[in-house]
Amino acid sequence: xxxxxxxxxxxxxxxxxxxxxxxxxxxxxxxxxxxxxxxxxxxxxxxxxxxxxxxxxxxxxxxxxxxxxxxxxxxxxxxxxxxxxxxxxxxxxxxxxxxxxxxxxxxxxxxxxxxxxxxxxxxxxxxxxxxxxxxxxxxxxxxxxxxxxxxxxxxxxxxxxxxxxxxxxxxxxxxxxxxxxxxxxxxxxxxxxxxxxxxxxxxxxxxxxxxxxxxxxxxxxxxxxxxxxxxxxxxxxxxxxxxxxxxxxxxxxxxxxxxxxxxxxxxxxxxxxxxxxxxxxxxxxxxxxxxxxxxxxxxxxxxxxxxxxxxxxxxxxxxxxxxxxxxxxxxx
Length: 332
Known about the structure:
The protein is an alpha/beta fold. The protein has two domains: 40-131 and 258-331, 3-Layer(aba) Sandwich (D-Maltodextrin-Binding Protein, domain 2), CATH 3.40.190; 134-255, Periplasmic binding protein-like II (D-Maltodextrin-Binding Protein, domain 2, 3-Layer(aba) Sandwich), CATH 3.40.190. It is built from twelve helices and eleven strands. A six-stranded mixed beta sheet has the order 2-1-3-10-4-11. It starts with a helix and ends in a 6-residue tail after the last helix. Pfam families: TctC (PF03401). InterPro entries: BUG, Bug_dom1, TAT_signal. This is Tripartite tricarboxylate transporter substrate binding protein. Keywords: Signal. Residues 1-30 form the signal peptide.
């Protein structure tokens, strides 16, 4: 056999092998099973019984129907949500582990304490779910009747007034810090591990004031007189409490904050999975019964593209960095 013929056969053989190798990724992609193939775990970064836990469970059921697999809710509370977010960051980026959380574990917690995850690159924001107004409420231990009384008491007895939040570096803690900073008062912070335990102790008067998210249960206690609404953090007064002023109306513009909650996935989760989840969540937020449940609880459905959610997180992080830089000691 001539050298020329051998060379031609070699070239043809190499061409066949090269064509097969180029086709292999397409064949593997075509053979990849559709997502999801197994149950999805939804980490709620707060304890059972709070506002966020209830809404996460309300979302999990229709989301399971949309995806065709169970969505299993798992509470992983602690450190203002950072324990649950750390669990998410360590999970496989396959779309089968998600988290329901406020954005504060990414935009505030890392500014005040060391966290085990990368708040900038450790997560894929999937979709905003709801905006929740913040209530400042007096408990049975609070002798005053207004937010003005709260400030007066804090000035007359430095350190004696106790203000509880659902945890360090939560939005309720930020509201307290801004009130202390602007009023130049000494108010003692009582951090909890979530809204449920905090509310139980509020009803028994374990402290004078708490900041909490608006929910039907809190509103019922206010209506019955067991708690007294002093102020609300929201763009405007809320329909359920028309006589209660916003913190901005009271002169505390920087403390006038609400909470943004959403769904997150681990970083490097496939874009197609994030887009599918975003589309399903947006559809569910517009549909019944979830839309009405959010509205009845005085939450504002969020929704929108995942890129918009990521943009809001970045804006909130920059704003919080400026606030913390103003006086870090107010966040202790």
